[in-house]
Structure formats: structure tokens, C-alpha cells
């Protein structure tokens, strides 16, 4: 898989969909061959993947990542297959466990048994995508439609899970095609993520999983100013336990130290450290989205693919 870039359309644009497609076209023209779309509560990343995939033939598109709550896996399967058909085989589905507090505030739900729900969500998706049918009655999810669930042109679809904890990584190794660790440093990948998910996949008779590591990036000659940007953009993660564990495991002082900041050569060297640690792919996530910043970031992605 080519080096990925997180698409960052202008939220102030007159039309966000038009802006996203335009940015995807510019990135593709600049040599980027894989883009990823985050999921919040505004634009839907699955729908946007379909639109971009149809508008920019040959560009890989993926979600990084869609929370499994509150959507039922049959809905995800329907949307994902539609996106794959639109992208003509260039779509990847990234899923996330989601955040308890955000879900409580936004939807009024407090999901229990998150790992069991992830497992059943993946079981249903695997059945739909692998066989075109499903019959599942679980503790968390029921999926027994008396209707077609297959979308012609919509399969196969690689499934990745944004997992960093040991239990979630084992579920991903057993049932998904890999993991999407965000802000997991090279030591965390080498010593924890890779051995955990590889063993789970091997024990289940599945191929070696992909580890698609997302790294916040800012190409800049002003390191101090760049770190200030990173501190502002990444402050949210500093309060989350899983990221606190990563910071501790990496032996770092701050979440800012997980960002790749500096000249193009320094950033490229930092990203190569992830590949050397066992990541199969890297995704560059812009910390700043001015045109010059994006062009520098696209150049870094090209340089990694060229080596």
C-alpha cells in the first residue's frame, strides 16, 4: 500500500464535499496514491470515500476510522460496499472502538462490552463481505436480514481496526486484516503492537496483518513554532489513558514528541523509523493545512514510496 495522507478539506469551504474532492485531485496529481478520511460528527467518511473514489480513479481511499457505535454492522457493510463499488476496488474500511464519553454526550449511550461488540461487529462484516450473507445472533448484535446484503462490485474490502490495547489487537488479528495505530511510536509498534497482533493472526490461521501507522507531521524549519502547533492540535490525546501508556512506553515527556517535525529530511527519517519498527505502512497526518504545508507533506509521502 502506498504511503497514505490524511485528507484535510477546508471546514470553512463553501461546499466541503467539493473542497475534499478538489484536494484529493491535487494530491493525486502531486503523486499521492492513498488518502484517508477521519470520522467526526460532520461529514460522513464512508460517503465521502465513495464520492472521492469515483471522482479520482486510481486513488486509494479509506476511513481512519469509523466508530462501531452507534451504527449496526449491516449499515456499515452497506455503506462500505457502496464505497468500494464507487472506488472500483480502491477502498479500505477502517473501524474504531469509539470514545465512551463522546458517545454518552452525543448519542446518550454508554456502550458496555465494547470488545465483545467489536468481535461481533467484525464477525457480521466478515460474513457479509466474504459470503454475501449473514446469520448472527450474539450477545451484543443480531444480524439476520431477510433481504440481500451483497452489493455487486462492492467486495472484497480490507478491514482494519484502530486498536492499540492488547485485547482489541487480538480481536483485530483474529478477524480483521490489520490495525490502524494512531500516535503509536516505533518502540510501541516493535515491542507491543506487532508481536500481539501477529500472534493473534497466526493462531487464527490468518495472513500477517498490516500495521498502518498514522503520524502527525509538520514540515518546518521553525521547530519551536511547529511544536506549539503540535501541542495545540494534540492536547486532546494527552488526557487519554491509551496514549499516556504510549508516551510512557516510548520514554517521552509529551504527546508532542510523537509528532514528526522538522525539515523534509528529518520528517522522512522519522517516518522510516516506523517502517523499521514493523509498521507495514505509514500515514502522514497534517498538523497544519495551509497549501504550502500540504505540498511539503505530499512530497514526503512521495519520497517514502520512492525508497
From TrEMBL:
GO terms for molecular function: oxidoreductase activity, acting on paired donors, with incorporation or reduction of molecular oxygen. Pfam families: Bac_luciferase. Residues 12-280 form the Luciferase-like domain. Gene3D superfamilies: Luciferase-like domain. CDD domains: Tetrahydromethanopterin_reductase (cd01097). This is LLM class F420-dependent oxidoreductase. It comes from Mycolicibacterium moriokaense.
Amino acid at each position: 500500500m502506498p504511503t497514505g495522507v490524511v485528507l484535510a478539506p477546508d471546514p470553512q469551504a463553501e461546499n466541503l464535499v467539493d473542497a475534499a474532492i478538489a484536494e484529493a485531485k491535487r494530491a493525486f496529481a502531486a503523486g499521492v496514491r492513498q488518502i484517508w478520511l477521519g470520522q467526526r460528527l460532520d461529514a460522513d467518511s464512508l460517503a465521502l470515500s465513495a464520492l472521492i473514489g469515483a471522482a479520482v480513479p486510481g486513488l486509494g481511499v479509506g476511513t481512519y476510522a469509523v466508530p462501531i457505535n452507534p451504527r449496526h454492522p449491516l449499515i456499515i457493510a452497506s455503506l462500505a460496499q457502496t464505497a468500494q463499488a464507487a472506488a472500483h476496488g480502491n477502498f479500505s474500511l477502517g473501524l474504531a472502538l469509539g470514545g465512551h464519553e463522546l458517545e454518552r454526550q452525543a448519542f446518550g449511550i454508554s456502550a458496555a462490552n465494547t470488545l465483545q461488540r467489536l468481535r461481533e461487529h467484525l464477525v457480521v462484516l466478515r460474513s457479509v463481505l466474504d459470503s454475501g450473507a449473514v446469520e448472527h445472533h450474539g450477545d451484543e448484535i443480531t444480524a439476520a436480514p431477510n433481504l440481500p446484503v451483497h452489493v455487486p462490485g462492492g467486495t472484497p474490502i480490507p478491514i482494519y481496526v484502530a486498536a492499540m490495547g492488547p485485547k482489541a489487537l487480538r480481536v483485530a488479528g483474529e478477524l480483521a486484516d490489520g490495525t490502524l495505530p494512531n500516535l503509536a511510536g516505533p518502540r510501541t509498534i516493535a515491542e507491543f503492537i506487532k508481536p500481539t497482533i501477529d500472534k493473534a493472526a497466526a493462531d487464527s490461521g490468518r495472513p500477517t496483518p498490516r500495521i498502518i501507522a498514522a503520524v502527525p507531521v509538520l514540515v518546518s524549519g521553525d521547530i519551536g513554532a511547529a511544536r506549539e502547533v503540535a501541542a495545540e492540535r494534540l492536547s486532546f490525546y494527552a488526557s487519554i489513558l491509551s496514549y499516556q501508556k504510549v508516551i510512557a512506553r516510548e520514554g517521552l515527556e509529551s504527546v508532542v514528541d510523537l509528532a514528526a517535525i522538522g525539515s523534509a529530511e528529518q520528517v522522512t527519517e522519522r517516518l522510516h523509523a516506523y517502517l523499521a519498527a514493523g509498521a507495514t505502512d505509514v500515514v502522514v497526518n497534517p498538523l497544519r493545512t495551509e497549501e504550502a504545508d500540504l505540498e511539503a507533506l505530499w512530497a514526503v509521502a512521495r519520497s517514502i514510496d520512492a525508497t
